[in-house]
TrEMBL record:
Protein name as annotated: Transketolase central region-containing protein
Cofactor annotation: thiamine diphosphate
Keywords: Membrane, Oxidoreductase, Thiamine pyrophosphate, Transmembrane, Transmembrane helix
Annotated organism of origin: Candidatus Roizmanbacteria bacterium GW2011_GWA2_37_7
GO MF annotation terms: pyruvate dehydrogenase (acetyl-transferring) activity
Domain Dehydrogenase E1 component as annotated: residue spans: 12-170
Length: 218
């Protein structure tokens, strides 16, 4: 089944059902590794992935199940990787999909791939999905600035749930994350970039940062 053959409503149900199934399995202690479930942002992700082709490359964080499914990676392959304990390392080169369990890990890698694509004059794009705390961290800030300065085919997507694990981002960092986003928007416009984009959305995650909220003894 190709997920893009579904209606938007069916896609939302599909994604929610998948995360619920993984949660149920996790609570049986069958998954010997951490999981990071997400919910509440299905609608916006579906809209974003309508702009992403299967030959474009997607970079995602350790919380990557929804992005993997929306990038047309078969459900059973995603599920098997999770059941094998590799939820945080969901790398599928054959589907142009990469993740990192390291904060900031995907940002410089994504920019490097975008630079190679530009050098080779390929008609591909890079989509880098990051969270609000990562967005304000050093290597990611540098990576975004670099992609703007060289107008690389990078599309940055910031998902803001105002949390880093259980720490509120606005309290930890101070200031306003939307101001930083607007700053980069202006930088893109000022530099007359044709290839770089940056998107920001806010949502409330329906799951804890990691796990399901139920203590599981292995």
């Amino acid at each position: 089944m190709n997920i893009h053959d579904l209606t938007d409503t069916e896609k939302i149900e599909y994604l929610i059902h998948f995360e619920n199934e993984i949660a149920q399995i996790y609570e049986t202690a069958a998954i010997k590794g951490p999981i990071h479930l997400r919910g509440g942002n299905e609608k916006i992700l579906i809209k974003i992935f309508k702009q992403i082709n299967t030959d474009d490359t997607v970079f995602a964080t350790w919380a990557n199940h929804l992005e993997a499914l929306l990038h047309c990676i078969p459900r059973e392959k995603v599920k098997k990787r999770i059941l094998d304990g590799h939820s945080m390392a969901m790398n599928f080169p054959e589907y142009n999909f990469y993740t990192s369990s390291i904060v900031n890990g995907i940002s410089p890698i994504g920019v490097g791939v975008a630079w190679a694509i530009k050098k080779q004059n390929k008609d591909q794009k890079i989509f880098i999905f990051i969270g609000d705390m990562t967005f304000q961290s050093g290597a990611t800030i540098e990576s975004i600035r670099y992609s703007i300065n060289f107008d690389l085919p990078c599309n940055w997507i910031i998902a803001d749930n105002n949390l880093s694990v259980n720490t509120q981002t606005d309290i930890a960092w101070g200031g306003n994350i939307q101001r930083l986003y607007k700053f980069f928007e202006k930088e893109i416009s000022y530099n007359h970039c044709k290839n770089v984009t940056i998107k920001y959305y806010r949502y409330k995650n329906t799951w804890p940062h990691a796990g399901t909220g139920t203590f599981v003894s292995f």
